[in-house]
Amino acid sequence: MILTKAKKHVTYTIQGIDTHDDAMKNFLFSLGCHAGQSITIISNFGANMVVNINDARYSIDSELAKAIIV
Amino acid sequence: MRIALAGNPNSGKTTLFNALTGSIEHVGNWPGVTVARKEGYVKKQLNTNQNIRIVDLPGTYSMSPFTSEERITKDYVQSEQPDVIINIIDASNLSRSLFFTTQLLSLGVPVVIALNKWDLIAKKAIDIDLVHLSKDLNCPIIEVSALRQKGLKTLLDTCIERKGTIQKPVFTERTDANLNKEEWLIEENERSSFVAQLVKHVEKRSIDSHQMNFNDQIDRIVAHPFFGIPIFVVILYGVFSISQATLGPFLADYFVGWIDLFYAIVADLMGNQVSPFLQALVLDGVIGGVGAIVGFLPLIMVLFFMLALLEDSGYMARVALIMDPYLKKVGLSGRSIIPMVISTGCAIPGIMSTRTIRDERQRRTTAMLTSFMPCGAKLPVIALFAGVFFQDAAWVGTLMYFMGILIIFFGAIVIRKINGDTSKASYFIMELPEYRIPSLKRAFIAMISQGKQFVIKAVTIILLSNILVQIMQTFSWNLQLVEEGAEASSILASIATPIALILVPLGFGVWQLAAAAITGFIAKENVVGTLAVVFGITNFIDVEALEVVSGTGEISSIMGITTIAALAYLVFNLFTPPCFAAIGAMNAELDSKKWLLGAIGFQLGMGYTLAYFIYQIGTLITTGQFGHGLFLGFLIVSFYIGSIVYLIKRNDQSQMTLQGA
After folding, report:
1. Where are the alpha helices (DSSP H) in B458-592?
2. Which of the following CATH numbers is that of domain B2-205: 3.30.390.50, 3.40.30.10, 3.40.50.2020, 3.40.50.300?
3. For B551-570, how does the pLDDT look when each residue is reduced to its tens digit (9 = 90+)?
4. Chain A residues in contact with B431 (beta carbon < 8 A)
5. pLDDT at B551
6. Which residues 2-21 in chain A show a CB within 8 A of chain B?
7. Sheet hosting strand B2-7, strand order edge to edge
8. What domains does chain A contain, in order, with CATH numbers?
């Protein structure tokens, strides 16, 4: 499922990144946001959410969250 | 020897750079503060008996050969061949940092790892086996605290030792140059697993980072979609009211007292022996003109102090988060808010900070519009007009900030309509740094550094402008002293008068005001300086004292314009192009003559149009009839609006042709 449908405070394993934007995909990769890594939603504000990836906190918007498949 | 600093954004590179070199480069607690390379020599206190040059590279998470921004580090290392690379790692985020480290290790240049924020990891219950890690990476690891200046000497000594050695790569013998994109992706995947394995071995975390922590609790309120905005407004209001309504003016009052004292002493010294021209030049041109601006120094320094505290706290990244949904609606990014907040101090670093915005159109639009936020140099102008025409009303300043924000939103919509929405899905992602209690010391250093720049500007560019203005208004074209009552024959008047004609529809077609507006393009403070010189007024802050000095009752009557026209003049000065230096910064960031011309045209037109409507409509309301030059102004404003509409229509048509094809 896409990350926007995921539950808060549950650690998921990323299945893949569904985007045509290669630059973004590479960027996410360098942060450690790619298939096999774990991701947790810390807070969900609707238009954006705070996630934990690779021991760091990021805020991402729902557009990006929709591209993350868990 | 030369050392390059490389590492992830917000890992503390610039803090380390400042600690090593004794510089006072701009630092902040959000990713992407350093946008250009900075260089400096290691300071003497660290006595290394060597001449060491340090280069601070912009932060990056990886060195992909396929994107330009991530190539900077690699290009630098390959073309400049530094002797050693210091890789700064945030100790609390080992797993992400090491990804970049393994890439650095494959460049052949000896690497020394500076494990920064080492003092923080005990609190987070993280344990790192440094001996093991150092062995696995084939490079020394030094624990440092850039903030507390610890471990710096050891770090440099290690670098000196490593100079001349060849770095063994840890992960791969292949070189990126021979890889195509797919091979590279495979390699990066292997790299990522390698790092994951390594971290598993050397790092023990007693607290799972996936759990809520104290920071997250704060974020739940501060970054909340409903509470976040009011909190932001209250914080900004606090910053501006302290700097501009309470503490700032309080300090300025004392300061102006000293300047007045100085003026009196110099006047006394010169007595009657000095020629009236020289007397006027020194007293009104130099002391008066520069003093009128320097008097505002306390306001500006307090403002910079508050902004530095704000940047240091980690709050800026949250502002970007809460503003993102709104900024997205007008075609900007949440990151656009950071340049805007910085621009309230100075537009130049504000414009430069747009470089962290990934999407080109969003980046250019932000660079083009961010200077509409009133900056520190515009404060004297606002304060002057609020004081003289509006009895120091606080609403004048507040209104100007809100107008700035509204113009930015409006401008963003217009630019999107002219350009078409070229951005693909524009994703927003930003690392949220941990909050920390802002350091008073660092804010103080930032304030002193900015204050110094302000004073330097005042005694160079502004002083020079004032002297020129003073000379130009004292002499006529045939180099005769202008006689009293014949001021209009001066060089300055004859240059400014034709321009004043265009300004008649805005309510201030007086040559003195036109001259001040022109010098304002050199530096905004010049508006105040020039007004001080051309009207012979020296004290703008203490208006009551001024009435006594001028003897005519009010400065408003000296200037000879109505209150409505004064508001129009203020708006014109604030919302036309800020200054040459900011235009230069815009030129660098926009990187397109077309965009730059568009930006300048848009800003000139915006200032003119707003001033026109304020003056004409305001005059209609207050006197029952329109002001002067209604028709001329109408032509100019129509041309401006017409051009924008034409550009939008042209874009619509090209869109339609595209769709039709």
Report:
1. 463-474, 491-503, 511-522, 525-535, 543-550, 555-559, 563-575, 580-590
2. 3.40.50.300
3. 334 566 667 788 889 899 99
4. 56-58
5. 38
6. 9, 11, 19-21
7. B38-41, B53-56, B2-7, B84-90, B111-116, B141-143
8. 3-69 (2.30.30.90)
